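Private note to self, pasted from the team thread so I don't lose it. Backbone tokens:
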């Protein structure tokens, strides 16, 4: 008696039962896990192999990477207000130098500069900020500087 006929070209195929399929699925799942583990291990190895960048060497454009703690470690000057325009200008130049070194975004410049204001300067900026927020004008570093210069470099009459 002759067994069931196999389609042409499949004479050597071994029939697979449900138990065999289960084993194949298990092996594929295991291989997938092993491949994922190896890929993760390679990523970790690559990260560990990369030399650490010297502090402040990289310019960070992402404001989330620039922390206030990092900024304060650079020793930014406090500004309390002054009637001496040269002193005010020196503070701005020092702050801009720090911002450039850190690669600060525009909004971070305003935040960090405002953090360094104390006394009369802080009172002035708090009021100025309140007035600016009442307008549709975005408070950029340029806007900060414009209002700062208007206040600390009054036009002579």
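Design output:
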């Amino acid at each position: 008696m002759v067994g069931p006929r196999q389609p042409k070209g499949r004479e050597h195929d071994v029939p697979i039962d449900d138990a065999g399929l289960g084993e194949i699925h298990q092996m594929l799942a295991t291989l997938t896990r092993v491949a994922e583990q190896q890929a993760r291990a390679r990523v970790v190895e690559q990260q560990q192999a990369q030399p650490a960048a010297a502090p402040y060497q990289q310019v960070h454009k992402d404001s989330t990477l620039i922390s206030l703690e990092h900024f304060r470690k650079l020793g930014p000057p406090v500004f309390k207000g002054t009637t001496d325009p040269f002193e005010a200008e020196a503070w701005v130049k020092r702050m801009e130098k720090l911002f450039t070194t850190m690669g600060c975004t525009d909004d971070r410049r305003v935040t960090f500069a405002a953090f360094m204001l104390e006394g009369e300067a802080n009172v002035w900026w708090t009021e100025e900020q309140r007035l600016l927020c009442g307008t549709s004008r975005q408070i950029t570093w340029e806007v900060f500087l414009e209002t700062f210069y208007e206040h600390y470099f009054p036009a002579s009459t």
